[in-house]
Amino acid sequence: MIFILASNNSKKLAEMRGILSPLGIELLSQSEAGLSIEVEENGSTFEENSRLKALGACDLVNAPCIADDSGLCVDALGGAPGVYSARYGGESCRSDKDRYELLLRNMEGVTDRRAKFVCVITCVFPNGDSIVSRGECPGEILAAPRGEGGFGYDPVFRPEGETRSMAEMDAGEKNAISHRGRALEKFKAKLREYYADK
Ligand code: ITT
After folding, report:
1. Nearest residue (CA) to ligand 1, atom 31
2. pTM of the entire predicted model
């Protein structure tokens, strides 16, 4: 089964391939599928943006398209950066490091460190059908970055029940507990049901 990942984030692609390939799902990047698109993410929820990205790709190719919209929601910041995680700090933040350093500055002196990663996967089929699944990973924001693995805010996030940051885990360990891993586990079950009903 070939699916196209409607994403420009190569780290997401690598994680999703790691999770979906054992199921026989071949995930093509946008460039491998001959697509060059940047969908405007103007939704206010992960669900809306995930659907916008999947539809944007599916309008252009005759294959099922998957999108992942994800982010970090921090309790003490009213859920920010949330759907704006990739754009946190605007033009003044040009890298993942800039963004997590801004987050740490905004959390200075804050004792409530609770946060969660959220991921919403949407798969749109050429016939208009769709599958949506959501995964969350609760945890807390560390005082300083730790680890070199993963991407984004991983160095400053410690998942609940863990002593290490997400960036101190290897890919398999992260996928087993991450928001993306959890959303994709649900997605796999829904996909099996979808094809069983066909
Ligand atoms: P696409 O929209 O092209 O897929 P993107 O990186 O812009 O790529 P999002 O709009 O979904 O994706 O933003 C997700 C951001 O949330 C991402 O850039 C990271 O900053 C953060 N994020 C999501 N998943 C993460 C993870 O597993 N570890 C660390 N940070 C993550």
Report:
1. 152
2. 0.97
